[in-house]
Specification:
Order of helices and strands: EHEHHHEEEEHEHEHEEHHEEEHH
Distance between the termini: 55 Å
Strand order of the largest sheet: 2-1-3-10-4
CATH class of the largest domain: Alpha Beta
Shape: globular
Structural class: alpha/beta
CATH superfamily of the largest domain: Periplasmic binding protein-like II
Radius of gyration: 20 Å
CATH topology of the largest domain: D-Maltodextrin-Binding Protein, domain 2
Bound molecules: the ligand NCc1[nH]cc(CCC(=O)O)c1CC(=O)O
Number of strands: 13
Largest sheet: 5 strands, mixed
CATH architecture of the largest domain: 3-Layer(aba) Sandwich
Length: 323
């Protein structure tokens, strides 16, 4: 903080306005940031911002990348809110020069989860089972497993999605485990999908805490919420996505994890493991690549995995259209 910063923990502190979407998931996520700021001595409150993604029906790949985050970013850039909390995976890969992601807090489990009727796991679903998901990445990877599943469009908030299994409209859905965790519905999960079968979306389960780039005092306050390992993982996964020139609606999965390895002298050190995949939307093929390297070269590692995917034909594969 600079010498001109207001003293904290006193009555002189202005309440920080945290912009969030109005869904239960979004307000719960933003609520954790509000609570952490208050605990650190910075009064904060939530301000609900309605986004195009909240009011437009239809698949996200048709309404456009950034539908959940663009309005929130405009409110932030215009100074109507001080902080925005996003699901990181909903942000476009292109940076917004007016803003900075001042914190990537500790991340939830990034994996996808299956919510199926009768407690079934993926391998137990009979061919022809109706499985709801509209993310092209999930659709492509599910098809590539060759289980003969009937993949159906699915949107709406988490409760609506789970409700379609409870009502019998669908046999199962695939959804981010993090979302269920945040709203206290882990009980609905019948299987957490191993990344060997289903690689999650780049930055799934992570939050982006954003503010204006011209506010160093606020950046300093928010950086107290940053988790170095979560940030490194997200930087690698997003680097992979950016190198593929793809967005959150592309059939691309990635996961980066901090793992322990031995250095040349036999000492245990933390490294970053990065796995990525690109799949044809029709499930006809999918390719994978991986790398392990220093945590402080996260972006480079992610981009290197992406280049390997490109060498293996990712561009052509991602061009295969839906069936
Ligand atoms: N695109 C919608 C979205 N954005 C963030 C989450 C879940 C929470 C997260 O990944 O952080 C979801 C729902 C889902 O993919 O099932």
């Amino acid at each position: 903080m600079t010498a001109t910063a207001q003293p904290t923990g006193t009555t002189a502190v202005r309440t920080l306005r945290i912009g969030t979407r109005g869904s239960l998931l979004a307000t719960t996520q933003a609520g954790t940031i509000r609570d952490a700021l208050i605990a650190a001595g910075h009064p904060a409150e939530l301000v609900i911002v309605t986004t195009k993604g909240d009011v437009t029906p239809g698949p996200v790949q048709r309404i456009g990348v950034g539908v959940f985050t663009a309005e929130l970013r405009e409110e932030l850039a215009a100074g109507r809110v001080d902080v925005a909390v996003h699901s990181y995976k909903d942000l476009p890969t292109a940076p917004d020069a007016r803003l900075v992601i001042a914190a990537v807090p500790g991340r939830e489990d990034p994996r996808d989860a299956l919510v199926a009727r009768d407690g079934l796991v993926l391998g137990e679903l009979p061919a022809g089972s109706k499985v709801g998901t509209s993310a092209p990445r999930r659709r492509a990877q599910l098809r590539a497993l060759g289980l003969g599943l009937d993949i159906q469009e699915l949107r709406g908030n988490i409760d609506t999605r789970i409700g379609k299994v409870a009502s019998g409209e669908l046999d199962a859905i695939v959804i981010a485990r993090a979302g269920l965790s945040r709203i206290g519905r882990l009980d609905a999960i019948t299987e957490t999908l191993d990344p060997v079968q289903m690689l999650p979306a780049p930055s799934q389960g992570a939050l982006a805490v954003e503010c204006r780039a011209d506010n160093p005092e606020l950046i300093a306050i928010l950086s107290g919420l940053d988790d170095a390992h979560a940030r490194a993982a997200v930087v690698a996964e997003r680097g992979l996505l950016a190198e593929l020139e793809a967005g959150c609606t592309a059939p691309v999965g990635a996961i980066a994890e901090v793992v322990e390895s031995l250095d040349d002298d036999g000492n245990v050190i933390d490294e970053l493991s990065v796995r990525g995949c690109a799949a044809a939307l029709d499930g006809s093929d999918s390719i994978r690549a991986s790398a392990v390297g220093p945590i402080d070269r996260a972006e480079e590692l992610g981009r290197a995995v992406a280049r390997e995917l490109l060498d293996l034909g990712a561009r052509e594969l991602m061009g295969v259209t839906d069936v």
